[in-house]
Write a structure and sequence with these properties.
2 copies of one chain form a homodimer. With 223 residues, chain A is an all-alpha fold. Chain A is built from 11 helices and no strands. Chain A binds a DNA duplex (30 and 30 nucleotides) through α3.
Chain lengths: 223, 223
DNA sequence: CCTCGAAGTAACTGGTTGGTTACTTATCGC
DNA sequence: GCGATAAGTAACCAACCAGTTACTTCGAGG
């Protein structure tokens, strides 16, 4: 509650002369260290002492800035969600044809999982805990309307020009688009093991990228 | 290693007269309790004491039968993998047309995730730990050839009769089929939260089931 | 009916772990 | 250059946790 209110207001320029004390930088280091540790070990496996050490900060400071382990986890989640949703908004899909727009969205999502593997691990942790952190976050809920709107627009335009099927639901398409990439990466270790292939190799990554585009575009083709 | 060799050989009929001592039943109770606890809390969050209590067994016995926490986790994993792969083999897809066979496989996979939600949680835990248990399991690797073979057969027949596209790869289809259901359920708590809907309601479950069939079949349609 | 191995129990151990306490040091407006 | 406040430190604690030890009880074969 009162935790985020204690954000340092005194040093507006966050990187002044080589200051011995830099609260904003310390907060940032804690957040990044927490992101790495929570991603590597999960919420349950992550150790607060390790986060403090990784951030090169005393544990006391971590508690001072973020409250407790769960609040810190929520802060990491909010940061990660905001990052991907904002990146999506900068895709400018309206400038493209419905088909190109959809291809762009699908490849963006797929490539984002490659670039930000921690995002998958964090979501898996949060779901193991039944989204109990997310449920008390005001910040995140508003982030998702816009991206569904973007998909709805693409679908409408595609239906109007006859290149997309008419019965596609934006939320289903959103979930399916995320699915085909997310599962591949979230389960990459077990899949690589049971199929005895390195699914992280460049050739496999490219093959999957082409496939997920085919899947979404194939589904959207009118009958 | 030598752990599974200590399987009780003395009481072949596993339920004799109300025996005060029944090692096989105890082992089974431990496995089921471990499955529930690992699924609920993840590998890191699971507590050996809780498993012992849930199984109504002394902790010493748990270590006696299963070695240690990691070995127990692997036993649970092997059990879960064997269960789904065996169920798949009983689908008898050869008796159906390629299209009906594929529809059958897709709905089976989807419904399996509803019936066995623990399977998803276990796989997520194993992937968080980079499949390090799976990698030292001989038992599981052989399980996956047959199901890929089933898909390959379906695809061949469908291509031959002109109802499927010719360039579909069996492993990609396997992964995609799993993806569209798995992600929905593994992320059901965060998705339900951000979209403010109960994705576990009957109507939502049915809508998604119809959608995932459409996705796979839509992809496989020839151009 | 006795003996011997397997089944079972309770209490313990050494190392962690999230969170706190008591204290010192730097910063900045005045 | 001073006093108030925020930043920072180290040592600590009570609860916890995977795995072990030392011991008792049961059951079946001889």
């Amino acid at each position: 509650m009162g935790i985020m209110a204690s954000v340092n207001e005194s040093s507006r320029e966050s990187s002044r002369r080589g200051a011995k004390r830099d609260p904003d930088a310390a907060k940032e280091r804690i957040l990044q260290a927490a992101l790495a540790e929570f991603s590597d070990k999960g919420l349950g496996g992550a150790r607060v002492d390790v986060i403090a050490r990784r951030a090169d900060v005393n544990k006391r400071m971590l508690y001072h800035y973020f409250g407790n382990k769960d609040d810190l986890f929520l802060a990491v989640l909010e940061f990660s969600y905001a990052e991907i949703r904002h990146a999506e908004l900068e895709l400018n899909l309206d400038d493209l044809s419905p088909e190109d727009g959809m291809r762009r969205l699908v490849t963006f999502t797929y490539d984002y999982f490659i670039k930000a593997p921690y995002f998958i691990n964090l979501l898996n942790s949060e779901n193991l805990h039944q989204a109990r952190h997310l449920k008390r976050s005001k910040a995140i809920l508003d982030l998702h309307g816009p991206v569904i709107g973007m998909i709805r627009d693409l679908l409408r335009r595609g239906v109007a020009s006859g290149v997309f099927r008419a019965d596609a639901d934006p939320i289903q398409v959103f979930i399916t688009n995320a699915s085909v990439g997310y599962f591949y990466f979230s389960n990459i270790h077990t899949l690589s093991t049971i199929f005895d292939r390195d699914l992280m190799s460049d050739t496999e990554l490219e093959a999957r990228r082409a496939h997920v585009v085919d899947v979404v575009m194939g589904y959207l083709r009118p009958a």
